Amino acid sequence: MTTATNTVQANSESNVWEGGQAPFGVKYGKLMMWYFLLSDAFTFAAFLISYGAIRFTVGQDIWPEPNRVFDAFPVLGHGYPLLFVSLMTFILILSSVFMVRAVQEGHQMNKKGVILWLGFTILGGIAFLSCQAWEWAHLIHNGMTMTSPITYEIGGHGSGAVFVGPLAFGQLFFTITGFHGFHVTTGVVINTIVFLNVVFGTYEKKKNYDMVEKVGLYWHFVDLVWVFVFLGFYLL
Amino acid sequence: MILSDQEYQMHKAAVWRATIILSVVTTVEVGIALLYDTFFHESGFRMALAVFMIMATLVKAYYIVAVFMHLKYERKAMAITILMPIMFLIWLLIALLMEGVSWHQMIEFYG
Q1: Rounded to an integer, what is the distance from CA A1 to the centroid of its chain?
Q2: Tens-of-pLDDT digits for all 236 residues of chain A?
Q3: What is the pTM of this model?
Q4: A235 and B107 in contact by Cβ < 8 A?
Q5: Which domain holds residue A127?
Q6: CA A99 to CA A129: how far, in whole Å?
Q7: Chain A residues with CB-CB distance to B78 below 8 A
Q8: B62 touches chain A (CB under 8 A)
Q9: Of A235, B31, B46, B74, which sits most exposed with the smallest number of CB within 10 A?
Q10: C-alpha torsion sign, points A197, A224, A37, A136
């Protein structure tokens, strides 16, 4: 089959499944990244749905208030509910936006643009991980671990009345945000590898920046999962 | 596929628009979450706000998948193969949350 007939067939959607061309109009690497992300979505969904089932089993009355659990900010101390996690969310969303810009510059074959925006993306990822490390260290320091439950003073600091939450809260928090953080970590590593390839001109020689697009999909997925983790742990 | 300058500017504008929507929705969500403690103790109110939070999160998820991950611009058949299996998760979510309520009632009943 000549290239000319190929192009004609690709334009008519009716015989797109008759062979000789990509029916979805994308390269197989990108398609497989999508299906990998679909399977990963099932893993995260299993985590988050278990979280929901256990939370409903325990009951709302003895489930910790997110505003009380997550109310610390570095240097400022306690009394700033959800401020730090909001900052983390904005860092991750911005990092995702930078990644979109990197993919767009890749389509334009603009090497300098890809280096700039992918660089910002990686810095955003590292900033997010640093924030998460601080949050974990803070919670563990305050006594919430996999084996000891979350506690906080009910009427604010100095009131004396102590609320003791279920052990499952900390266990779910550390496994789910931990699994998400593991994804961010691998994302940062893979982004860095692709960044080095861009710098060394590997994709310029290949005449396409498809690899940036594929790691871009992974990075957006990490952001997408965070939106749902944010909903489950901090907003509801 | 190098885009024309006009198309490139259009794609760029779509991304910045999605960014602004994501930021505004997140800010509103956090603002409302802060009110839980102070103003809304009745469970009915909480339920309504929870529904709002889930809706707002789905709006954010739409913009990330459609604009950032570019799925809006892919062929429909491909989008369907990715989104259809997700539908099963909605069923799993409803089933297990109802199960959670049932476990809670059993614990209350049998002690």
Answers
A1: 43
A2: 344 444 444 455 567 778 888 888 889 899 999 999 999 999 999 999 999 999 999 988 889 988 888 888 998 888 888 999 999 999 999 999 999 999 999 999 999 999 999 999 999 999 999 999 999 999 999 989 999 999 888 766 666 788 888 999 999 999 999 999 999 999 999 999 999 999 999 999 999 999 999 999 999 999 999 999 999 999 98
A3: 0.90
A4: no
A5: 27-235
A6: 17
A7: 24-26, 31, 34
A8: no
A9: B31
A10: positive
